[in-house]
Amino acid sequence: MLVLMLLGVSVVSDNSVIQVTGQALPRTWRLVASGVVIALAVLSLLSLATTLRAVEAGDPFGRSMTRSFRRFALLYLLSVVADLLLPPIMQLSLFVAHGGHGLITVGFDDGRVLALIVAALLFFIARLFDEARRLEDDNRGFV
Questions:
Q1: What one-character DSSP code corresponds to residue 102?
Q2: Residue of 16, 15, 44, 9 whose CA lies nearest to 30
Q3: CB count, 10 Å around CB of 65?
Q4: What's the rounded Cα separation, in Å, for the pair 5 and 123?
Q5: Is residue 106 classed as helix, strand or coil in its secondary structure?
Q6: What's the rounded Cα separation, in Å, for the pair 122 and 12?
Q7: What is the pLDDT of residues 82-97, one digit of tens each?
Q8: pLDDT in tens, 3-53
Q9: On the chain, which terminus has fewer CB atoms closer than 10 Å, C or N?
Q10: What does the alpha-carbon distance between residue 42 and residue 65 come to, in Å, rounded to a whole number?
Q11: Chain-centre distance of CA 66, in angstroms?
């Protein structure tokens, strides 16, 4: 769905449903930045699906589950950081390419702060899963 939404933005230029980051960027650059963020988000969701399949298979604290959950947390963090940093980096490259004339804006709103907090919580949860796996392995050793 996210990929289809990006394609919809590329066809309809004045779309009020989807806000593409980096409004000071040319349209093509905004689409590239959004494409990278969406690709990372889709990959993180695929990793979360792998995590849920491992839990469904009856291995809630196995290595594959904790590894895929940690990958989910990392890809989610990367998508948030890419959404935060890609537009200013692209603006900086355009600034340099045009001989130092242009505008560089860095946006850091409450939604991005919340997304970074969620990413930190996901890494904490991944650490708790690792500890739970270690305790489960210790319990199996006693039996």
A1: S
A2: 9
A3: 20
A4: 29
A5: coil
A6: 35
A7: 988 888 888 888 888 8
A8: 666 666 555 555 444 455 566 778 788 888 888 888 898 899 999 999 999
A9: C
A10: 18
A11: 18
Q: What is the enclosing helix (H) or strand (E) of 9? A: helix 2-11
pTM of the model: 0.78
- Strands annotated E in 1-129: none
Distance separating alpha carbons of residues 33 and 43, to the nearest angstrom: 16
Instruction: Decide if 47 contacts 75 (C-beta within 8 A).
Output: yes
Decide: residue 56, CB within 10 A, 0-12 exposed, 13-18 middle, 19+ buried.
Answer: exposed
For residue 19, count CB atoms less than 10 angstroms from its CB and return exposed for 0-12, middle for 13-18, buried for 19 or more.
exposed
Q: Is 68 helix (H, G, I), strand (E, B) or coil?
A: helix
Tokens at 71, concatenated: 């990958």
User: CB of 47 within 8 A of CB of 71?
Assistant: yes
Residues 6+ positions from 105 with CB-CB distance below 8 Å? 24, 87, 88, 91
